[in-house]
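Dear H.,

Thanks for agreeing to be a second pair of eyes. The structure we're designing against is below in token form, covering all 353 positions.
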């Protein structure tokens, strides 16, 4: 058993973990591992927003155009396609892409095919909305967790390696304990979100500045390999409770510190749905996320349904679950929106529709 914090990211602690050194977790999990040379990663959410079935074909074509750009030099090492319907009823088709080198990402963004397309006036005139939410956490600022070691997701794919079984999980506060920065830093938020260009409304190009220590989580599940009782339990009991919690954060999350939440379903390269989903949310702070997880009825229900699920199956699961959590410095965030409604992403709550 080993620590979630890689050896090269350990330092003398000034803040204590929530468990003792002899703590034994109730079941195994693993973390992605990157070489020590990887000091920072890039996670990019590239979205196309539309409304109504008549626009979905154009939105899909726009997303495929974005994805075609990933094949250019310095493109991402991994990407996923996903879809969700937001609180305002808009369809959002998204490509989430990952780089293990911020310099490569910067070169890719500056490529004429990418930059000229994004800056073109046509983006404001073709009836679609576009957004890109780019975060680039340093290695000390994020953690990953997987319930199986043989298939990584998200940033884990570009990190490339996997740990042994982890000690810091299965207790409240373990998420924080897995982030290397938690060894010395409370990761408390400071400042506020700010509009730095445009105005949150359709027809605008908008840039949003994030503040210190915004927390971001991508938490996913894949049920493609489930059968029999497990599949019935997941689809009939666990997923509806999960969806209710995700909808609560989407629709009412602002007052508990959740700036944005998307409950997304994976798509294949042709746009067909896969048996995989994830929640992607941004929070004012890790502490706000922790409070929701530990005490809010919607997450207590999710946790309770999951525990009933694993106990009914004697912890022998075919369901794959994972998450990645980042606590972001202000200089690790870049949010841009073109012709999107005012409740989109990090604009949510900053302006009138």
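And this is the sequence the design step returned. I haven't edited it by hand at all.
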């Amino acid at each position: 058993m080993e620590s979630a914090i890689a050896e090269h990211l350990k330092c003398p602690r000034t803040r204590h973990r929530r468990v003792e050194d002899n703590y034994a977790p109730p079941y195994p999990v693993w973390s992605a591992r990157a070489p020590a040379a990887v000091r920072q990663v890039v996670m990019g959410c590239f979205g196309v927003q539309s409304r109504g079935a008549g626009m979905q074909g154009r939105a899909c074509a726009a997303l495929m155009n974005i994805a075609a750009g990933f094949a250019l030099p310095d493109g991402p090492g991994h990407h996923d396609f996903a879809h969700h319907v937001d609180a305002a009823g808009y369809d959002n088709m998204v490509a989430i892409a990952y780089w293990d080198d911020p310099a490569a990402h910067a070169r890719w963004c500056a490529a004429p095919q990418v930059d000229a397309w994004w800056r073109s006036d046509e983006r404001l005139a073709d009836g679609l909305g576009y957004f890109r939410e780019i975060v680039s956490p340093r290695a000390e600022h994020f953690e990953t967790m997987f319930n199986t070691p043989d298939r990584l997701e998200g940033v884990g794919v570009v990190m490339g390696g996997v740990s042994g079984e982890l000690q810091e999980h299965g207790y409240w506060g373990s998420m924080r304990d897995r982030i290397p920065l938690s060894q010395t830093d409370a990761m408390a938020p400071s400042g506020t979100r700010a509009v730095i260009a445009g105005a949150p409304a359709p027809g605008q190009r908008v840039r949003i500045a994030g503040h210190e220590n915004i927390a971001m989580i991508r938490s996913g599940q894949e049920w493609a390999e489930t059968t029999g009782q497990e599949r019935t339990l997941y689809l009939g009991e666990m997923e509806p409770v999960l969806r209710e919690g995700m909808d609560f954060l989407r629709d009412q999350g602002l007052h508990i510190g959740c700036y944005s939440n998307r409950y997304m379903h994976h798509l294949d390269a042709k746009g067909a749905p896969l048996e995989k989903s994830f929640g992607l949310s941004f929070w004012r702070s890790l502490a706000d996320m922790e409070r929701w997880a530990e005490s809010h009825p919607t997450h207590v229900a999710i946790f309770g349904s999951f525990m009933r699920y694993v106990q009914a199956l004697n912890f022998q699961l075919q369901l794959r679950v994972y998450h990645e959590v980042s606590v972001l410095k202000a200089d690790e965030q870049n949010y841009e929106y073109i012709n999107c409604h005012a409740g989109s992403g990090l604009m949510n709550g900053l302006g009138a529709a």
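Two observations from my side: The radius of gyration is 20 Å. The chain has eight helices and 14 strands.

Warmly,
E.
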